[in-house]
Write a structure and sequence with these properties.
The chain is of the alpha+beta class. The protein folds into 2 domains: 4-102, Helix Hairpins (Orthogonal Bundle); 118-421, Bira Bifunctional Protein, Domain 2 (BirA Bifunctional Protein, domain 2, 2-Layer Sandwich), CATH 3.30.930.10. The protein has 13 helices and 15 strands. It has helices at 4-9, 11-19, 25-65, 71-102, 140-146, 152-159, 169-187, 202-208, 232-236, 294-311, 358-363, 388-398, 413-416, and strands at 122-127, 192-193, 199-200, 226-227, 242-245, 251-260, 279-289, 316-320, 332-340, 345-354, 365-368, 376-377, 379-387, 406-407, 420-421.
Length: 427
């Protein structure tokens, strides 16, 4: 949520920032400004009447002391009190409407984002070399089936398209990757591991910005709980409605969870294999910090996600998203795109984002800069560290051999128990 004081005091700056995103956020901003003005007018009227009521009450008390008739003044006082009650009710209604409109406003993109839409996204740097082959490399769905790692047909039979089934060494591969990532982030990067719930309430989903922006893409149960689209939601909300100590910051958590998203494959694009799925596994990194440390924490977070891909020897590139492509809650996002030789494409395997105080305001996550200081909002950041499907795609497609086997990167061998996946061993 954007600071209402900033909107009120610098509306033109906020207009300009939202305009960089494109879309219809400008119309929502104008509605917020009108509603805020209406609220302030009602408050001023109510405060004026309350002052009048106080004066009248004092006068009634004086007349009673002096045994002077105050019946007419008492009747007037009752009318004023009734009007104040009506105004207070109107203020509450306007404040509720204002909050709902505020929840529709996206975060303000930081100044260093490129201008434009997705076509303006900028490649910041690349790592590794794309592999070359003396044969035509196969896509991962063919490799996975031949190696006994994937059974997409049975996954679809059980749950529908977009719900992959890993079998044999494929199932072990997912466990190996999760354990490798968790160990790396806890032992070398200093994160605290948590095992959060996979279902969250509406307040938690609203706190991180999934609701109302992405509610249509979330699975919801009959009792109003939402299946998480990412561990960012429960982990960020660990400190909702809390005041942290300054010496406890920065603070980082890592969590493995399955993730559930309705939108995958909705437009018929990239629906084969693991490229777009409704359920997938992911290791998530979440950080809390003081505002001044936020830029450095963002770069650190990005480096932690990059370390995973480097250890797995996967070529990737870092892409800075343009202002018109950055997500609803994000102020700045880097995507990590891995090269997949079989489908000949760059695939997003991680997004590292800073949300400034946007999520903290929605979830009311604060800290005290000093023991006796007024609480201030923290900054929140998160990154995939990393998502499994496209990481698995790159591992299989980039490391395939002409005989159908797949080489296992050295960092993963201790977790998988083999340095090569071969046909006939996976099932």
């Amino acid at each position: 949520m954007i600071d209402l004081r900033l909107i009120r005091e610098s509306p033109n700056d906020v207009r300009a920032a939202l305009a960089r995103r494109g879309g219809k956020a400008g119309g929502i901003l104008e509605a917020v400004l009108r509603r805020d003005e209406e609220r302030r007018e009602l408050l001023q009227r109510a405060e004026k009447l309350k002052a009048e009521r106080n004066r009248a009450s004092e006068e009634v008390a004086r007349r009673k002391r002096e045994q002077v008739d105050a019946a007419e003044l008492i009747a007037q006082l009752k009318g004023v009190s009734d009007t104040i009650k009506q105004l207070d009710q109107q203020v509450r209604a306007v404040e509720e409407a204002l909050e709902e409109q505020m929840l529709l406003l996206p975060n303000l993109p930081l100044p260093d984002l490129p201008e434009g839409d997705e076509s303006a996204n900028a490649v910041v740097r690349s790592w590794g070399e794309a592999p070359s082959f003396d044969f035509v490399p196969k896509p991962h769905w063919e490799l996975g089936e031949a190696l006994g790692l994937l059974d997409l047909a049975r996954g679809a039979k059980i749950s529908g398209s977009g719900f992959p089934l890993f079998t044999g060494m494929g199932a072990k591969l997912t466990r190996a990757l999760v354990n490798f990532m968790i160990d790396l982030h806890t032992s070398e990067h200093g994160y605290v591991e948590v095992g959060p719930p996979y279902l969250v309430n509406r307040n938690a989903a609203r706190g991180t910005g999934q609701i109302p922006d992405l509610e249509h893409n979330m699975y919801v149960t009959e009792d109003g709980l939402y299946l998480i689209p990412t561990a960012e939601v429960p982990v960020t909300n660990l400190h909702a409605e809390e005041i942290l100590k300054a010496d406890a910051l920065p603070r980082g958590y890592v969590a493995y969870t399955p993730c559930f998203r309705r939108e995958a494959g909705a437009h018929g694009k990239d629906t084969r294999g693991l490229i777009r799925v409704h359920q997938f596994d992911k290791v998530e990194l979440v950080r809390f910090c003081e505002p001044a440390a936020s830029p450095a924490e963002h770069e650190k977070l990005l480096g932690h996600a990059e370390a995973v891909l480097q250890r797995l020897e996967i070529p990737y590139r870092v892409v800075l998203l343009a202002a018109g492509d950055v997500g609803f809650a994000s102020a700045k996002t880097y995507d990590l795109e891995v090269w997949a030789a079989g489908v000949e494409a760059w695939l997003e395997a991680s997004s590292a984002s800073t949300f400034t105080d946007f999520q903290a305001r929605r979830a009311n996550i604060r800290y005290r800069p000093q023991p006796d200081a007024k609480p201030a909002f923290v900054h929140t950041l998160n990154a995939s560290g990393v998502a499994l499907p496209r990481t698995i795609i790159a591992l299989l497609e980039n490391n395939q051999e002409e005989d159908g086997s797949v080489r296992v990167p050295g960092a993963l061998v201790p977790y998988l128990g083999t340095d090569r996946l071969t046909p006939g061993e996976g099932a």
